[in-house]
Amino acid sequence: MTPAVRRRTYLREAALMLCLARCALHALPARIIFGWANRPVRRINRFAVDEAHWVAWSVETAGSRRWINASCLPRALAAQAMLRRRGVASRLCLGVAPGQGAMAAHAWIEVGEDVIVGGAEAARFTRLARFALSDPGPAA
Q1: Domains of the chain, residue spans
Q2: What residues in the chain have per-residue pLDDT under 50?
C-alpha cells in the first residue's frame, strides 16, 4: 500500500470512529462505554508498533478538523477502537488537574509506556482511572 493510500485509509477510519465515539458518548451510559473500553484484546499483534503511530496521527488529524472538532475523550475512544482492531494492547487513561477555579479533565491513550494520543497535555494530569486491554503492569 502506498503512503498516500495508507493516509487516506487511516483518515477515513479515524473520521468514522470519531463520529461513532461522539454518538456513543451522547447516547450510552458511562458504564457501558467504559466496560467496552476495559475488554481484553482477542489477539495481540506484537509486530504492529508502526500501526500505533499511524492510528495516533490519523485520530489527531481527523479530530482537529472543524467539522468533527472532537475533544480528548472521543479521540481516545476512537484510537483505542482502532488499536484493538489491529491487535495492539493499549490503556485508556482518565485524569484530572486543578484548573483556574475548577477542575480540568483529560483522556489519553498509552501503548506500553508511550502516550500516543493526547500526550501533549497528559503530563500535567493526575491519573484517576485506566481501562486496560491486557495490561500486566502495576496498578496506578
Answers
A1: 3-132
A2: 135-140
At residue 40, the pLDDT reads 78
- Residues 86-97 have pLDDT tens digits of 888 888 999 998
CB neighbour list of residue 12: distance below 8 Å, 6 or more residues apart: none
**DSSP collapsed to 3 states, the chain:** CCHHHHHHHHHHHHHHHHHHHHHHHHHCCHHHHHHHHCCCCCCCCCCCHHHHHHHHHHHHHHHCCCCCCCCHHHHHHHHHHHHHHCCCCCEEEEEEEECCCCEEEEEEEEECCEEEECHHHHCCCEEEEEEECCCCCCCC
